[in-house]
């Protein structure tokens, strides 16, 4: 086996070297004829087969005694010894000096040694083989040049190798010789050699990519892979011929400049891609040398070192501190050239302590870029590293707060601890107040509202101006909504503050008071809108902006102005994949509104897409988001993924001592799931838990969690009609006080289930009339199903089946795939319900043309109807109390569904739909009369 491997190695290193060997054969023939020649084999990097080619030339010319052979090899350890290499070429009886000579003395020695060569060559032609001339001592290099200038009339072939450019380490006369640069092996040659060694296709590709055609590396890789697979594709094994070959080059066989170049290139291409040419040029400045490598050599070496196997082998040969120093310098070069902050920061992560101002700045900017791209872990790593260096107290406090906000969703304890540290670092009162609000929001997210309130109270005590005190008081009231005991007192404080509240604070004061009164059943939706809408244009203190918009969006959502609520949320919340900032209590509110508004609109896919990732990322890490979890679970339930819905609500765990209203939402969702499973008693229990939690907050209105309606439906299933009717009547009373179609229609449906008979049919008819033009598509479909069954039960099958078909059309629209996804339709809970009801009522589903107004939402139908009548967007906006942007968005959506492009086409579409509806209505009678 050793003999076979040696033979294979020689075959490999001599592949694609026919031109070199042919040139050497011609030069040897000329030398034997008395016309001496020199030949220089050069390569810019080690491992290109210079020595192997030299050995092959020597073997061929020594065969049959054709030429006498003299061999010498330069070594870095002997460069300080004059004539050390020359001494290897001559026998011991030839006097070669041991010290450096100058002037005529050196000339006399040079002449004498050349005379010795001529005398010996006269007896038999001579081949002098000198390997690694670049490592020879200076005196020996000068003698080689002296010999080359006198070789023309001697039967001597001088073959030299050097790791340098073709010009060589010494000037050689071009008339008497030639320089040959050894090229890298082609990819096809490497593949042939790998295949001959029994390697597979993937292994052959590895040999091509990780060798850059370098014969020595090809040979080492083939040997390594023949022994078995490498541990993984991205790192070299701890011990391998390949790694040992590169390490040996770096430590022993290259000069200090070349070593630095290799290390710099390995560091520069650490991300796996070759460094840019302009960066390569500047890296050369890191390794100053009188004869730097050519740009082509740098590019080839850069490509080789972009492969992880080569790069890691080079870096393994570095001394401690070298890599960090190179990363620092390259980061500085990148920063000076205006490179992306991420490119600079990725280098600085290898620096123990980023001690300069520009380093902290680059890490900070890179963290911002990473957050915008949704790479939170990467951003946190940048900020942690920036904090490891020297910073002024305010800068350290700011970065600490930002890091805490990033850590919070994934680890409440770590994030809150970091935010507390940031608060303690701030010395300015205003900054401390801002830090206190961030910490309190984090504590709310971490389900610790008691501590959050203490933090805000403490910040208020040290506030240095009256307006700041009022800002903190208002934010404290917002946080108090998560604490049963503190909520009523906070509202009382706001009522006392309201008459004297500064103009920039008053909108939020009004909003929070209105939230309390709406929940307590003390005002209607119309009254709420009259308070909120005028204040949306009022100036608000920047410190309260998100909190005010969160309160306003909540009230708009409750009033069923879903597009407006969504618009306010979208104004402040970042678009995915940028994560929301949970250290802003206002953004927490807007996050909840955005999710619930989409859920109420039947946009279940949107709820899941926008919130599931955050819910799953924070689950089990201390940050629990009960309301957001409830929204995601309900959306999954609606699209038929009931198991995943249960998993979501179960993962949150118990509320413990937390009395936040968010847990009431989770209880309500849990009750929905129990009801879907047919576990009616468990559903009643959870509805009542929800109700108890809401009542503790003085929240009796059904605007958020209609627990009485749900409990009434479940009690009816259990046969407890009296209890069901009591809850349904109470719910209907509060619903009529609020006055939106959604709340009243939902309560009427529950009342119908509780009373039955004629009253049920009347209630369901009223509910359907209310819900059809409303944005409450889910409630509309559920009511139409009940109405259809009630009509059929009362003997009016035609009306019953029409109601069921109408419910089915709504369910089909809600179960359609998300816009722009092109995916298949979802099954959907409502669709399952309507299909079952259609089967039981012996009704067939109406064919869906996809181009009529039945595809429109209720809001779209209202806007399209006004547009068809000739009203402008501004007039529609004013008439429906919607923003201009909302009207335009609905019209765009309607045009797509109706497959039209112009406003004038609306009249024809609506007339066609009206005719279709009339024909459908008279057809059953026509059949009877016929």
From TrEMBL:
UniProt keyword Signal, yes or no: no
Stored InterPro entries: AAA_16, Sig_transdc_resp-reg_C-effctor, Tscrpt_reg_LuxR_C, WH-like_DNA-bd_sf
Domain of life, per lineage: Bacteria
SUPFAM superfamilies named among the record's database cross-references: C-terminal effector domain of the bipartite response regulators
Keywords recorded for this protein, A-Z: ATP-binding, Nucleotide-binding
All residue ranges annotated as the HTH luxR-type domain in the record: 849-914
PANTHER family reported in the protein's UniProt record: TESTICULAR SOLUBLE ADENYLYL CYCLASE (PTHR16305), TRANSCRIPTIONAL ACTIVATOR DOMAIN (PTHR16305:SF35)
Protein name (Swiss-Prot/TrEMBL): Helix-turn-helix transcriptional regulator
Organism in which the protein naturally occurs: Streptomyces katsurahamanus
Lineage: Bacteria, Bacillati, Actinomycetota, Actinomycetes, Kitasatosporales
């Amino acid at each position: 086996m050793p003999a076979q491997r040696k033979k294979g190695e020689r075959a490999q290193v001599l592949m694609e070297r026919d031109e070199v060997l042919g040139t050497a054969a011609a030069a040897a023939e000329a030398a034997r004829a008395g016309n001496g020649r020199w030949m220089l084999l050069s390569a810019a990097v080690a491992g290109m087969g210079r020595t192997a080619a030299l050995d092959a030339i020597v073997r061929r010319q020594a065969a049959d005694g054709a030429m006498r052979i003299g061999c010498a090899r330069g070594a870095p350890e002997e460069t300080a010894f004059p004539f050390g290499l020359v001494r290897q070429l001559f026998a011991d009886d030839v006097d070669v000096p041991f010290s450096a000579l100058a002037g005529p003395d050196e000339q006399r020695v040079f002449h004498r040694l050349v005379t010795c060569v001529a005398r010996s060559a006269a007896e038999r032609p001579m081949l002098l083989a000198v390997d690694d001339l670049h490592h020879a001592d200076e005196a020996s290099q000068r003698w080689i040049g002296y010999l080359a200038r006198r070789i023309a009339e001697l039967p001597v072939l001088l073959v030299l190798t050097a790791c340098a450019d073709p010009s060589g380490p010494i000037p050689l006369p071009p008339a008497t010789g030639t320089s040959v640069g050894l090229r890298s092996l082609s990819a096809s040659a490497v593949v042939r050699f790998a295949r001959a060694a029994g390697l597979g296709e993937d292994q052959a590709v590895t040999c091509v990519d990780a060798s850059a055609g370098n014969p020595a590396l090809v040979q080492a890789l083939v040997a390594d892979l023949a022994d078995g697979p490498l541990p993984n594709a991205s790192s070299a094994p701890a011990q391998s011929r390949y790694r040992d070959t590169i390490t040996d080059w770096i430590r022993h066989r290259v000069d200090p400049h070349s070593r630095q170049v290799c290390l710099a290139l390995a560091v520069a291409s650490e991300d796996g891609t070759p460094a840019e040419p302009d960066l390569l040029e500047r890296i050369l400045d890191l390794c100053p040398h009188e004869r730097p490598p050519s740009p082509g050599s740098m590019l080839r070496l850069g490509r080789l070192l972009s492969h992880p196997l080569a790069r890691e082998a080079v870096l393994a040969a570095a001394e401690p501190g070298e890599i960090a120093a190179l990363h620092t310098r390259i980061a500085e070069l990148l920063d000076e050239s205006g490179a992306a902050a991420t490119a600079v920061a990725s280098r600085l992560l290898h620096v123990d302590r980023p001690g300069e101002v520009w380093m902290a700045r680059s890490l900070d900017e890179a963290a911002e870029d990473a957050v915008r791209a949704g790479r939170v872990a990467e951003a946190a790593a940048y900020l942690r590293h920036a904090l490891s260096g020297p910073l002024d107290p305010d800068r350290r406090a700011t970065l600490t707060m930002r890091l805490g906000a990033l850590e919070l969703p994934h680890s409440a304890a770590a994030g809150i601890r970091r935010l507390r540290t940031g608060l303690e670092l701030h010395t300015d009162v205003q900054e401390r107040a801002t830090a206190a609000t961030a910490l309190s929001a984090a504590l709310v997210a971490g389900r610790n509202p008691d501590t959050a309130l203490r933090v805000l109270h403490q910040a208020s005590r040290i506030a240095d101006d009256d307006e700041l005190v009022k800002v903190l008081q208002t934010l404290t009231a917002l946080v108090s909504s998560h604490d049963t005991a503190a909520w009523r007192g906070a509202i009382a404080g706001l009522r006392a503050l309201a008459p004297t509240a500064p103009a920039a604070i008053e909108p939020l004061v009004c909003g929070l008071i209105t939230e309390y009164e709406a929940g307590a059943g003390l005002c209607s939706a119309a009254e709420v809108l009259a308070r909120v809408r005028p204040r949306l244009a009022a100036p608000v203190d920047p410190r309260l902006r998100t909190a005010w918009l969160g309160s306003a969006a909540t009230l708009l959502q409750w009033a069923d102005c879903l597009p407006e609520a969504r618009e306010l949320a979208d104004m402040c919340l970042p678009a995915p994949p940028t994560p929301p900032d949970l250290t802003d209590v206002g953004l927490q509110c807007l996050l909840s509104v955005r999710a619930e508004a989409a859920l109420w609109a039947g946009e279940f896919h949107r709820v899941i897409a926008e919130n599931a990732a955050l819910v799953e990322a924070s689950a089990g890490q201390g940050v629990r988001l009960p309301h957001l979890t409830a929204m995601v679970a309900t959306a999954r339930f609606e699209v038929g993924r009931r198991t995943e819905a249960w998993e979501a609500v179960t993962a949150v765990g118990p509320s413990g001592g937390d009395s936040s209203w968010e847990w009431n939402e989770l209880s309500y969702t849990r009750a929905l799931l129990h009801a879907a499973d047919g576990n009616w008693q468990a559903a009643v229990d959870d509805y009542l838990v929800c109700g108890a939690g809401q009542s503790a907050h003085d929240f009796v209105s059904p605007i958020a969690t209609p627990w009485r309606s749900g409990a009434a439906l479940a009690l009816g299933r259990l046969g407890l009609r009296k209890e069901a009717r009591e809850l349904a009547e109470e719910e209907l009373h509060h619903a009529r006080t609020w006055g939106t179609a959604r709340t009243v229609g939902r309560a009427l449906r529950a009342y119908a289930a509780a009373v039955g008979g004629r009253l049920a049919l009347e209630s369901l008819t009223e509910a359907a009339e209310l819900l059809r033009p409303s944005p409450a598509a889910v409630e509309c479909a559920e009511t139409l199903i009940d109405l259809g069954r009630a009509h059929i039960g009362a003997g009016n099958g035609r009306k019953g089946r029409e109601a069921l078909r109408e419910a089915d059309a709504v369910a089909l629209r809600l179960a359609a795939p998300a816009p722009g996804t092109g995916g298949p339709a979802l099954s959907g809970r409502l669709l399952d319900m309507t299909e079952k009801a259609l089967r039981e009522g012996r009704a067939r589903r109406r064919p869906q043309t996809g181009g009529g107004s039945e595809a429109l939402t209720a809001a779209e139908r209202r806007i399209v109807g006004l547009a068809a009548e000739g009203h402008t967007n501004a007039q529609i906006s004013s008439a429906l109390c919607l923003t201009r942007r909302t009207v335009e968005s609905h019209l765009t959506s309607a045009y797509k569904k109706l497959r039209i492009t112009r406003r004038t086409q609306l009249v024809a579409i609506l007339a066609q739909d009206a005719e279709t509806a009339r024909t459908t209505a008279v057809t059953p009678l026509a059949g009877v009369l016929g």
